[in-house]
Amino acid sequence: MARRRREYDASARKTGPSHKRRLCDQKTQERSLISQRSQFSSPSNHERLNTHAAVSRRRSALICFEKMLHIVGADDLYVRATQTRGAVILMYHSVAGKDAAAWIDPANHLPPEVFERHLSYLNRHRKVVPLSNVLQALQRGDCLSAGTVSITFDDGYLDTLSTAAPLLARFSFPATVYLATGYISRGQSQWIDQLYGAFVSRTQDDLDLGGAGGAVWNLGVTFDRSAAYAWLKQRLLTGNLADRNALLAEVEGQLRPYGMPPRLTMTWDDVRTLRARYPAIELGVHTRDHLDLTAHSNDVVAAELAGCIEDFRVNLGFPPRHFSFPYSRANRDLSRMLADVGLESAAIACEDPVVKAAADRYCLPRIAAPCSTRLLGLVTSGAYPDLPRRLVGRA
Ligand SMILES: [Zn+2]
Q1: Ligand 1 mean position, distance from CA 285 (Å)
Q2: Over the stretch 267-306, which tens digit does the pLDDT of each residue have?
Q3: How far is ligand 1, taken at its centre, from the CA of residue 14, in Å?
Q4: HEC profile for 245-260?
Q5: CA 93 to centroid of ligand 1, rounded, Å
Q6: Under DSSP, is residue 140 helix (H, G, I), strand (E, B) or coil?
Q7: Does domain 1-395 have CATH number 3.20.20.370?
Q8: Which residue ranges make up each domain of the chain?
Q9: Residues 6+ away with beta carbon under 8 Å from 253
């Protein structure tokens, strides 16, 4: 049995739907698009895999090219030549060590040693500032110089306290941590990690979600596993908390995972410890139940915003100032609603991460920190995405 479990684990982690996404966020988006397109056009599995492989090859070539731009110093030259200005906000999630990382979707995780390399690079080559510095510049109608970086974390992983904060303190770096307050109150793992954990520690391969609008999958088959994970991810992302928990319970009931993950999320006691020990870390909110705000009515959105502000205030004694959009999904109505409830800024991951003087404080661009330190150098230089776009038409 133990051997079988290890095999499940290894195969899911090697070929699972989210493997390699830690390498590059954009790569994931392309994969996801391919997956969605395939559902509608219904090509054969063989055609799908060929398309997938071709996209992967193009992405790999572009990533190599972008790393080369940084290695030869083209990014710094471009910034000087064009007098580009603007800070870059980096987005992280989990930096858990191996034991906890085995239960976290790789798309949300960077190993602590990679994170430490990032900080070391930023210490040598960039200027790390609090988010409030970026906002003060915007208030003056200005922006900060290229090479200025602000660090943010989403969700409220326990390793933000145990691993990231001590490393940040070693470099005297400030950061902003956005909390999904309902998950903090319940000390509950993020739904994506519950799903990931059920897949990697499953003892059953058959998953029948036909009654829930899905399909029947054999998770022992790589393609089925990817398709099931993608379908579930989309359903869980756009659903409300009750539907999400019911679907996860159904998946866990059928897959019968053999193990329980360690606690992955901070509690409010942990958050208070984080605040007391690391005063350079500012806390913000990320909704209460980690909902896709664009998938729900204004009443639900208003309740999510009021709920996370209330949770934050009751447990920490002061109101939050900053917000980040779950799944980087937003629209104009949401910006207005955030201003109405007294929040001062909102961050959202997007294709162009440079915070220019004209940036909207309720739509602050940021970018998922790439695993590669060379890519980190490029995306924090101020030359990304303009330089690769000018040279090869895309970034
Ligand atoms: Zn999130």
Answers
A1: 10
A2: 999 999 999 999 999 999 999 999 999 999 999 999 999 9
A3: 24
A4: HHHHHHHHHHHCCCCC
A5: 8
A6: coil
A7: yes
A8: 1-395
A9: none
